[in-house]
Amino acid sequence: PRRIVRYQNDWHAAQAALGWTHRFSKVWRLWTSLGYATRPPAINELYSQGQHQGVSSYERGDPNLMPETIGQGRLGVEAKFRSWCTLEVLGYAQWYDGYIYLAPQPNLFLTIRGAFPLFNYAQTDARLLGTDVTLRLQQGKNWRYRATYSYLRGDDLSNGLPLVFMPPNNLQQELTYQVMPNWTWGQSEIHKLAVHLHHQYTWRQNHLLDVQDLIAPPEGYHLFGGSFHLEGQIGRTEWRLWCRVENALNATYR
């Protein structure tokens, strides 16, 4: 039925954080933090009722959603070996009272335009555990290497299930060569040249039941890419040239 529906919401958001850091020596540094926050539900989480054109799905909000309450803790350690090697490890945990998420439904929603996947906004108690490990290497002023491994696990504590839509574990690498050549030809000058090579591997999301989503999680995949960067000057005019390639091997992934 066509009718006007009105709601009156009166929410307040709070946030607090406490952190501590200590450097034991020139090599080791330790830091930790505790945090607390509340987040009211967004308008779309409350009142969505229709087709999401961007992803061809039908979304339904829940006007009875309550604000999320979040408690989090982080612990990190950094080790710097001389000037060429740095290792950083960060672990974190987050607990949610009333975690708001978009839950896939097993049935399709039928409209005069066709059948669409159905998603409902819902709330549950949840826990997120994760760690990031970053390695940085530097050889002189020209060569740099950076690798980051990210692990994340999300659990629906109320229902004893994995959380949906959690990013899978991934490894990202970048190798950079940079030089300041100061090449000149008359009034033309090139004073910076940089080449970057990128690689990313994404694992299959194994912490998810096949029945929780519309289709099973995809297999792991590699992505390769790179970029080329030049900076220079002609007279009093500065110029920059960038060229970037992503997914150079044209891998199929989701």
**How far from one another are the termini?**
39 Å
Secondary-structure element string: EEHEEEEEEEEEEEE
Shape: extended
Number of helices, counting only DSSP H or I runs of 4 residues or more: 1
In which range does the helix fraction lie? Answer: under 10%
| Model regions low in confidence, pLDDT < 50 over at least 5 residues | none
Can you count the beta strands? 14
Structural class label: mainly beta
Give the C-alpha Rg: 25 Å
Sheet with the most strands, sense and barrel status: 14 strands, mixed
Mean pLDDT: 92
Strand residue content: over 45%
What is the compact description of this entry?
The chain is mainly beta and 254 residues long. It has one helix at residues 43-47; strands at residues 15-23, 28-39, 49-52, 57-60, 68-81, 85-111, 114-139, 143-156, 161-162, 170-179, 183-185, 188-202, 221-234, 237-245.
